[in-house]
Amino acid sequence: MPLLFDREVIGPKTHAFVIGVGNYPFARAGQGVSAKLRAVPALPSAADSAKLVCNWLIENKDRLAAPLATLDVLISDPPATENRYPWVPAVHVDSATVSNVGTRGFAWYQRLSVQPGDVAFFYCCGHGASHLQQPVVFLEDLNSNPTNLWSHINLGELSYRLRKHQSISAAFLFSDACGEFIPQFELIKQAVPCPFYPDETESMFSVSRNQVSLLCAASENQLAYEGPDLAGSHLKFGRFTQTCLKGLSGSSARYSRGRWGVNSRDLQSDLKALRRIYFEHWGDKEPFDPYSAVTPSDLIPLVYPENFELPLVVSTDPPERMPYYDFAISERNEPAPPWLKNNATRAPGPWKTSVPPSINALYAIAIDGTDYFSQLFQPKEPLFEQWVSVP
């Protein structure tokens, strides 16, 4: 099958593989092999999250640190049609079955072997679990094969194989799936994952390259959740996916070596704060606890975003003085306009705003009539706690 995106790129390039599993036809009532696996709900948001990531990759194809050369995608789309992400792919998209993942995944792995220095990008979303403390995502044929009921990808194993890959310069993996503890699955010590990489004996004694990152939506025995993209919207995506894309689009950028880039380690450390700032409409009933299952040794940028602003959260010190002040962000240590941003609501909570990235200093100013108090800061990274001391 043709790739969703394919072009020639001179020099280091990114090869992406995206999987979204929203349909589990053998794991519903009256279907499949095991009665214990007949209550797995369809997950339209998983399919739509994969589509969202595909669009993000294509839109940012030239902003990636290694420009996007190829993008392959497998999506198991449930029949639900209401409140879905509108997406018209340029090619036919196959389902995320064991057969397709094995074939297409191996082709992706082989593309990574052609030219030294290329970059791997992998994303998956669907129902998941933890097996022997390794994150997994289940594929469409879950409960279809009596010799392997638990068809899945083991993300820990994939990360290990990519660390042994001698050609790539870096690999970025993202898994938006639960880390649920399932006793029946955990007791299968030799649960067979869907392999799409060479036999382990080919690389067992190779040097490990510690430039692989794996960010997961939920740690062991934790759940991952979907959420609406906007307040009042009925369109849902994975919460982890939405927050990651927000960070990758610039909200988690840092200034380094003359450029604004986003790396996986800083992204992971920012995710909870980004969720609080940009996705308050999700509420606080469900946990949001993404973690880094595999951490690279170096801060390797994945993307150099453009036309973005950095999040800024301004509070008074002490916090209870917030309602007594107006606020402004200015290039000058003066309470009068012009301002870059201002807020006169005098709300009791912190002021959540954003500012253009810069290596030049700005002032956060608390204003009460003719009196004002300021704090100098440098917007070269997200600032989730910017305090202005007031009486």
General description of the model:
It is a single chain. The protein starts with a strand and ends with a strand. It has six helices and 22 strands. The chain is an alpha+beta fold and 391 residues long. 45% of the residues are buried. It has helices spanning 44-59, 98-111, 155-164, 183-186, 239-251, 264-278; strands spanning 5-6, 14-21, 68-76, 119-125, 128-131, 134-138, 152-154, 170-176, 212-216, 226-228, 236-238, 254-256, 259-263, 291-294, 301-303, 310-317, 326-330, 341-343, 351-355, 362-368, 371-377, 383-389. The model has no long low-confidence stretch (mean pLDDT 95). The strands form six sheets. A seven-stranded mixed beta sheet has the order 1-3-2-4-8-9-14, with helices on both faces. The protein has a four-stranded antiparallel beta sheet with strand order 18-17-20-21, with no helix packed on it. Helix content is 18%, strand content 29%.
In short:
It contains 6 helices and 22 strands. It is an alpha+beta fold and 391 residues long.
**Helix run count:** 6
Number of strands: 22
Give helix % range. Answer: 10-25%
Structural class: alpha+beta
* Low-pLDDT ranges: none
Mean pLDDT: 95
Percent strand: 25-35%
Strand order of the largest sheet: 1-3-2-4-8-9-14
Query: What coarse outline follows from CA principal-axis ratios?
Result: globular
Q: Please write the string of helix (H) and strand (E) elements.
A: EEHEHEEEEHEHEEEHEEHEEEEEEEEE
- Major β-sheet, in short? 7 strands, mixed
Termini gap: 67 Å
* Alpha-carbon Rg, integer: 23 Å
